[in-house]
């Protein structure tokens, strides 16, 4: 029996993560520090994001379309 985990999936650092979500590195750092994006801190110096974390952030920024009555 095999189980799938996130350890073999690619991760993003600040520059690649920022490019993926369409933000500057500074904006991504601010969002991560504010707790708006999940992240992995490795050794206190390195930060990595999973694709699922970045996708969840993008989903949280989504604004549902409104319909005009007239």
Automatic annotation (TrEMBL):
Residues 18-61 form the Helix-turn-helix domain. One of its GO terms (molecular function) is DNA binding. Pfam families: HTH_17. It comes from the Bacteria. This is Helix-turn-helix domain-containing protein. It comes from Agromyces mediolanus. The lineage of its organism: Bacteria, Bacillati, Actinomycetota, Actinomycetes, Micrococcales.
């Amino acid at each position: 029996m095999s189980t799938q985990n996130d350890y073999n999936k690619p991760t993003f650092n600040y520059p690649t993560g920022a490019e993926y979500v369409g933000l500057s590195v500074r904006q991504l750092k601010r969002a991560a520090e504010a707790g708006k994006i999940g992240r992995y801190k490795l050794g206190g110096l390195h930060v990595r994001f999973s694709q699922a974390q970045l996708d969840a952030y993008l989903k949280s920024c989504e604004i549902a379309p409104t319909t005009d009555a007239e």
